[in-house]
Amino acid sequence: IKRRRDRWKIEAEKDRLAGTLESCNKALLAMKRECDDFEVWEDCDKFAAALSRFVGVYEDISKDLNAEENEAIRDLYFDARHFLDMHEGMDGDYTIYTDFTGDRKFRLRLQCMEPRRNLETYLMYSVSSIFFSATLIPVRYYMEQLGGREDDYAVYADSPFDTKRRLLMVGTDVSTKYTRRGEDEYAKIARYITEFTQAKKGNYIVFFPSYRLMEDVRELIGDGMPGIVMQERTMREEQKEEFLDAFAEAPDESRVAFCVMGGIFAEGIDLQGDRLIGVVVVGTGLPMVCNERELFRGYFDEKKHMGFEYSYLYSGMNKVMQAAGRVIRTADDVGAILLLDERFTTRQYLELFPREWADWERVNIESMGRKLTEFWGKY
């Protein structure tokens, strides 16, 4: 009799668990009906309450479920707990919004707009905390966002590398602005890349702001430049290793890799010596305009009147610096860097150049060739 009672009890509890999930689904469907594409919400309390009931019921009955049943629902439980923990700790630094993914799946997000307060909670327990990166520029922005205080130190360590062993140029007669994109601008970009990589035999990487632009320029070049290889949209770890292993010392012929800024080859790779002698960075690295970016832009416009800088500019320049930093990896390295976009010469961008980029040189197609000949002639 006890076994029968317990069995019916478990079945009833499973029905109760299913009922809580149905309540979660109804709460989400109600939000979905009011979201055409992107919607910002004051709260999501009804969904959070339904999710909390699911968590409570699962915790009550989990010990009575078999291993297979627990495995099927455990990940959902942990995701729900994480969501509720975030929801409980939300403050004015969070925004709630709903939208649709690329495959039109409805999504509810609790978006942290500034990580500062969350980080401060952990930093207060430490004796000392050090944030280190080669691209913490502008430093005041990163200090603010990472929970720094006014009396904290910000140290700019000078580069140990001799700038005479590195040529930095900015092509000023070309642009990747969306309003300027087209075959004429792509032809200029293609010519710059061709001239730059043919000045000296070796290994090069050209970083583009997007796969689309990379593919368009590659198509325009056609068979006019041998040795081009392209980053694929999805690459397994072994494919990445094969891609990098092909950057050989003292190659018999040039290798020109077309890659995407902010991707797997834009940071964390270490091609020393002749394995990489030049990098071209096409464009300013600005992220694509999207609902989420515009949300950040509006938030920081309201708080600091710096929406564009916080949501687009600093992120883009960070990717540019990461890409350019692939060239000089040791004190013995020699290399050339070409930044392609007229916007790099404006005050807004020049103020974000690292201190060691002070020797940058303005070029066009003709003057670039002369400077490369002179530079490579020394080495």
Q: What is the CATH C level class of the largest domain, in words?
A: Alpha Beta
Q: Please name the CATH topology of the largest domain.
A: Rossmann fold
Shape designation: elongated
Number of helices: 12
- CATH architecture type of the largest domain: 3-Layer(aba) Sandwich
Number of strands: 10
Count of domain modules: 3
What's the helix and strand layout?
Layout: H1 2-33, E1 38-41, H2 45-61, H3 67-88, E2 94-100, E3 106-112, H4 116-123, H5 139-145, E4 166-171, H6 183-198, E5 203-208, H7 211-221, E6 228-230, H8 237-245, E7 255-260, E8 278-282, H9 291-304, H10 307-324, E9 335-340, H11 347-350, E10 361-363, H12 365-377
Helix pairs in contact: 1-2, 2-3, 6-7, 6-12, 9-10
In short:
Residues 1-10 have low confidence and may be disordered. The protein has 379 residues and is α/β, with parallel strands linked by helices.
Describe the fold and architecture:
The chain has three domains: 2-111; 113-157, no CATH class; 163-377, Rossmann fold. The N and C termini lie far apart (91 Å). The protein is 45% helix and 14% strand. Helix 1 runs antiparallel to helix 2 (45-61), helix 2 packs antiparallel against helix 3 (67-88) and helix 6 (183-198) packs parallel to helix 12 (365-377). It has helices at residues 2-33, 45-61, 67-88, 116-123, 139-145, 183-198, 211-221, 237-245, 291-304, 307-324, 347-350, 365-377; strands at 38-41, 94-100, 106-112, 166-171, 203-208, 228-230, 255-260, 278-282, 335-340, 361-363. The protein is an alpha/beta fold and 379 residues long. A hairpin with a 5-residue loop joins strand 2 and strand 3 (106-112). The protein is built from twelve helices and ten strands. The longest helix has 32 residues, at 2-33.
